[in-house]
């Protein structure tokens, strides 16, 4: 007899009610690189029932050191479509919307306002679109967890989830805070960040053709761990797992 309860072990740990909450949840993930690709996979494997993923980028060879779906066979392919195909192969019943483009500010505001997500996972690595998404979440009172910079960091033990106003040793968070203050926004925003010392000598300047003036070196496990923490924050926010009684 075929046995199809693929969430059995999740149910054993967090209970049927919490599994049902995840099945009935609706999540938006923007950015499907090193952090977002892992966050998406962890959430789908936890049983999230409805997911919208957005990214307009395509895989290139430099993505292979850290991005879940970056393979020789996917180079040049759109990230959103490839990640989406993988997610459907994990859970064929998931309600999945794939947005294969970079979202303009008006589109971000419209999607967040109209879709009524239970949670937003912000894995964008550019300042301005990241600010637009955070502000859209704040103005619609949608829960959000935002990934800060995983580049230039090595120590996995120094990754934390906290209010953005309590971050330290994170240049990316410092820039986000500066922009929020400029717009007179002081709301609590949950972020994943590392307080590890930045490896400044890993910085590389670019010609700006890839929308970035510079970037830091990365190691395989750090973006994945950021994605793990983002997914865990969402799961904790949707379920009652903190109230689960521990055995005596």
UniProtKB/TrEMBL annotation:
GO terms for biological process: cyclic threonylcarbamoyladenosine biosynthetic process. CDD domains: YgdL_like. It comes from the Bacteria. GO terms for molecular function: tRNA threonylcarbamoyladenosine dehydratase; ubiquitin-like modifier activating enzyme activity. It holds the Pfam family ThiF. Residues 13-241 form the THIF-type NAD/FAD binding fold domain. PANTHER family: TRNA THREONYLCARBAMOYLADENOSINE DEHYDRATASE. This is tRNA threonylcarbamoyladenosine dehydratase. It comes from Mangrovivirga cuniculi.
């Amino acid at each position: 007899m075929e046995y199809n309860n693929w969430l059995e072990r999740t149910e054993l740990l967090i209970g049927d009610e919490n599994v049902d909450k995840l099945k009935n949840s609706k999540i938006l993930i923007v950015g499907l690189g090193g952090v977002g690709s892992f966050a998406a996979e962890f959430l789908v494997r936890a049983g999230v029932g409805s997911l919208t993923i957005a990214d307009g980028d395509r895989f290139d060879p430099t993505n292979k050191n850290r991005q879940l779906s970056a393979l020789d066979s996917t180079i040049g392919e759109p990230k959103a479509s490839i990640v989406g195909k993988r997610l459907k192969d994990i859970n064929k019943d998931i309600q999945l919307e794939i947005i294969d483009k970079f979202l303009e500010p008006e589109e971000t505001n419209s999607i967040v306002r109209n879709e009524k997500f239970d949670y937003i996972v912000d894995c964008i690595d550019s300042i301005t679109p990241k600010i637009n998404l955070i502000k859209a979440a704040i103005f619609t009172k949608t829960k959000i967890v935002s990934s800060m910079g995983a580049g230039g960091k090595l120590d996995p033990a120094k990754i934390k989830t906290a209010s953005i106003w309590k971050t330290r040793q994170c240049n990316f968070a410092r820039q986000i805070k500066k922009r929020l203050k400029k717009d007179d926004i002081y709301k609590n925003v949950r972020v994943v960040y590392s307080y590890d010392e930045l490896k400044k000598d890993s910085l590389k300047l670019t010609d700006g053709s890839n929308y970035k003036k510079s970037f830091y070196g990365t190691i395989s496990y750090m973006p994945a761990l950021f994605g793990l923490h983002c997914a865990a924050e969402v799961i904790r926010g949707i379920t009652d797992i903190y109230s689960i009684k521990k055995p005596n």
